[in-house]
User: Fold this.
Amino acid sequence: MEYFHFSEPEQQSNPDLEKKTSRAVSRVGLALFVFMLVSTVASLVIQLLTKFIQPELFEADWYNWTVTIFSLYVVAAPFTYLILRPLEKENLPKRRLSAKTFLIFLFIGFLLMTLGSIIGQNINRFIERFAGEQESSITEAIRGSALWLSCLYSLIIAPVMEELFFRKFLVDRLSFLGDIACVILSGVAFGLFHGNIEQFFYAALLGGLLAYVYLKTGNLLYTILMHGIVNFFGGILPTIVEYLLPVDFFSCATDAELEALIEANPLSFICLMAVSYLPYLFAIIGLVFLVLYWRKLKQGLTPCPLAPRTRAHAILANPGAILYLVITLLSIVATIFLA
Assistant:
């Protein structure tokens, strides 16, 4: 694995740096707030127009993803970029990753995604005691949409656009805060953007790793490729296999029906389970790599140059960060109680 060396900045009280941090984080937060607000409003307007003009479109298997893509990346994304554009950015130096190092990061990504998924699922189970059953939003979205469109969104559009905004645009403009702060801010912002408990933890952990890779390489192609591969094995491949199988195990209304279907189609069930649990195998490999390379991974990470006592205030106590936190937390609460 490659080594990356950076000098550590002094952590002394610096009013000018604190003001710069507050302004930069506030503008980033405002941009992401506008991203969520405008895309939500656009989606609601489109659905309202559909209801009055051609309500049968709601039944089309391409409708939901199309509205999502249009609202996020055609309507909201330009406003977000215009807000971010004036911020001073740093062009990170380009470094190549060997195939070995790429695979190490990829497997660690599966580990973080799996850990985050387990945390999110367990929190959802706890919430179900008070707020009722919590549906798997991403699973339902993929299964309820045209397979080709789910592949297009999950493997190409989402990796490209999300890496562009949450790694390229965000990290380039906040890199003066040091590697550790950038990794945390990029990861948390990415997790919050998903707007639900189920996806927050794994998106935040995976987003932090992708920010780390981008910081170390300055090359967005690596993070786009990793993002797409994780999405493929995490959601698309099981759906493809399920689509190709001659039976639908998820249509069973009772355990008895499911058991009978499994007995009649054991090979199909084994195939589906093997594909579904493949990310867990990758996660185990990722854990091995994380243990082996932990010292090298953390070597050279630059800490935040802000004095410890001023970091939280400079980063969080600004209008943009507050607005983004409010709209994302409201989204999370809405998914809990309106599921």
User: Anything to note?
Assistant: The CA atoms of residues 89 and 173 lie 4 Å apart.
